[in-house]
Amino acid sequence: MAEVKEIYRYLDGLAPFSIQMDFDNAGFLVGRGDAPVSRILVALDITEEVAAEAADLGAELIVSHHPVIFFPARSITDGDPTGRKLLALAENHIAAICAHTNLDAVAGGVNDALALRLGLRSVGQLHQDGVDGRGAAYGIGRVGVLEGEKRLTDFAAFVKERLGGGGVRLVDAGRPVHKVAVGGGACANMMGDALALGCDTFVTSDVKYDGFLDALALGLNLIDAGHYPTENVVCPVLADWLKKGFPQVEIHISRRHHEVFSYL
């Protein structure tokens, strides 16, 4: 058994909440700090389905990547999705800790997990955002290399398979794939960083139309592999961290949460 505040402090030691980006709302967002925890559910998002899953499991805490509260709530009622989620958590005595951009940037977090899932070697930072209180550099995105080269279509198919996505969107700039940048979630604004480091290919998500046009004009292969697939890779990482830190607590990864849309 552990307390919510102990788990928060442990996660803060691995992915300091102080390094989250200014727009973010990561942290201990719902619940009582001294509440006991015997089961934790890990999920990319806290949806109504995930809240129900936690209640069915008897979990007292959900640890997620995306914040369950992002914008200030002016009311908490059953009349909107956010209100229903928060009511479900409160009524079932379920706390929520959400590690968002701090987990994107920290060593071993979202982007390292994505780079390793895609088989990249010699992984380094795509962009350094700062240095934390312990003197450790942090930043969004990673860069690594493949063993040998691949055709873009072959690599894109590999990305789709490795991330379990329903499909990918891509721009072929006519270059073989060897040095690859990755940015879990919406990181298309970092194409300049990828080019500056000599990358031929960038894997990210949520790319707008003009982003694809820019990539083609700049000579950068671009793969949009989806927000959920590029970030859900961190859930096993979070689960492993929690198992190591709290071996007496049951850790579960959500089975009900999945990609929100389908491909035809």
UniProtKB/TrEMBL annotation:
Family: Belongs to the GTP cyclohydrolase I type 2/NIF3 family.
InterPro entries: DUF34/NIF3, DUF34/NIF3_sf
Annotated GO MF terms: metal ion binding
UniProt-annotated binding residues for a divalent metal cation: H65, H66, D104, H227, E231
Presence of keyword Cell membrane: no
Keywords: Metal-binding
Keyword hit for Methyltransferase: no
Any one Gene Ontology cellular component term annotated for this protein: cytoplasm
Record-given protein name: GTP cyclohydrolase 1 type 2 homolog
PANTHER family attached to this UniProt entry: GTP CYCLOHYDROLASE 1 TYPE 2 HOMOLOG (PTHR13799:SF14), NGG1 INTERACTING FACTOR 3 (PTHR13799)
